[in-house]
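[Discussion] Sanity-checking designs against the backbone

I'm trying to build intuition for which residues belong where. Below is a structure token string of 291 positions. I'd appreciate it if someone posts a full sequence so I can compare it with mine line by line.
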């Protein structure tokens, strides 16, 4: 990119988002310091080199405060400029490797956390941990499980139509819905979300004995509203267990929710599955064996 002054350079920089900006100090309409200050705020990773014919320490001070890479005085010797560019190139490559490493580390940390949470939930609902072990593990994972009452809700999300442009079963509509659902649970401390398998999530609902039923109903309603907004592009089903007052009773609660949720294969149009809806289906279609 090339521009005669800062006023014309700025929109070009915003569009192309350069790795490096080399600018003169004195330019009409917008000088190099003003341009550098704006670029530093909007594109903090862009390297800036200022060239000036004015040996004025005030300019140098301003440039240093803005975090420019170099302040060069005219005339600039070609070899010196090439040396500077080579040095900046190496620095940018090192920073890029550092960003890639950080991104990989964060992704691996998230994957490990997701696996650990899923493993922890599996141990809770299969009776693999004592109550004291559950409390200790939850504390180490910074998960607050303290409550007088609990319930478990299961919900599954899958693509109704797959166009072949993404990994099997994964579409833009499904990805958007999953993001919205995740954000919903992040803002509610009384609802703890776990990933059960590829298509199914589990929600541990906690609260007072008089609150569990209403919180469960509200959670069902909120998930239903999010899924309905996604339209017919996403298949979804919800099932709940019965409230319990002890952590040690969660395996029974989960077993009930899981049994009800498994009927989604037999009645795919029934999005909210309950004991009542299953009994109604049995009455309408005769005896149906457990899935």
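Best answer:
Here's mine. Compare freely.
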């Amino acid at each position: 990119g090339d521009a005669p002054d800062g006023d014309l350079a700025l929109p070009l920089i915003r569009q192309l988002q350069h790795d490096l900006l080399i600018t003169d100090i004195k330019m009409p309409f917008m000088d190099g310091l003003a341009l550098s200050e704006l670029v530093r705020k909007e594109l903090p990773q862009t390297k800036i080199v200022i060239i000036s014919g004015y040996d004025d320490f005030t300019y140098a001070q301003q440039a240093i405060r803005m975090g420019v890479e170099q302040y060069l005085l005219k005339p600039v010797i070609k070899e010196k400029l090439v040396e500077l560019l080579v040095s900046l190139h190496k620095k940018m490559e090192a920073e890029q490797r550092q960003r890639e490493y950080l991104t990989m580390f964060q992704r691996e940390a998230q994957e490990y956390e997701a696996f650990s949470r899923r493993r922890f939930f599996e141990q809770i609902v299969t009776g693999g941990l004592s109550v004291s072990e559950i409390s200790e593990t939850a504390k180490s994972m910074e998960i607050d499980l303290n409550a007088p009452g609990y319930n478990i809700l299961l919900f599954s999300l899958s693509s109704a139509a797959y166009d072949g442009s993404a990994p099997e079963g994964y579409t833009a509509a499904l990805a958007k819905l999953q993001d919205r659902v995740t954000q919903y649970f992040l803002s509610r401390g009384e609802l703890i979300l776990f990933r059960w398998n590829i298509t199914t999530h589990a929600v541990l609902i906690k609260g007072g004995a008089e609150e569990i039923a209403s919180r469960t109903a509200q959670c069902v309603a909120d998930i239903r509203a999010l899924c309905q907004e996604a339209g017919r592009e996403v298949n979804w089903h919800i099932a709940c267990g019965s409230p319990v007052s002890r952590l040690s009773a969660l395996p029974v609660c989960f077993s009930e929710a899981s049994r009800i949720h498994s009927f989604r294969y037999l009645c795919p149009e029934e999005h909210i599955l309950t004991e009542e809806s299953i009994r109604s289906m049995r009455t309408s279609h005769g005896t149906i064996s457990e899935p």
